[in-house]
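[agent] plan:
  1. take the single chain provided in the ticket
  2. run structure prediction with default settings
  3. attach structure tokens to the ticket
  4. add a short note for the reviewer (M.T.)
[agent] executing step 1
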Amino acid sequence: MLSSRMDKSQYELFNVLNDTILLRFDRLTPWEKNFITELHHKVVTRQLISIKQKQLALKISMKAYKSKKKNVGVVVNKFRTLT
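[agent] step 2 finished; step 3 output follows
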């Protein structure tokens, strides 16, 4: 019988995916957004996830945390034109 609890590695992956979606989603490309949300759904529904999928998710997450926000300059320029 399957346990209703996540093991430690599943929980850590869930946290990484959740943080990426909640905090850094705007920094991802469309295919990365799709991949991360599909993987998040798999974790929540307890479907099997391959090692390669986990590695790619961590790579995308690290890239998102290192990259700067895309539209910061646009917002600043719009603010300057309004004032």
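[agent] step 4 note for reviewer: The radius of gyration is 16 Å.
[agent] ticket updated
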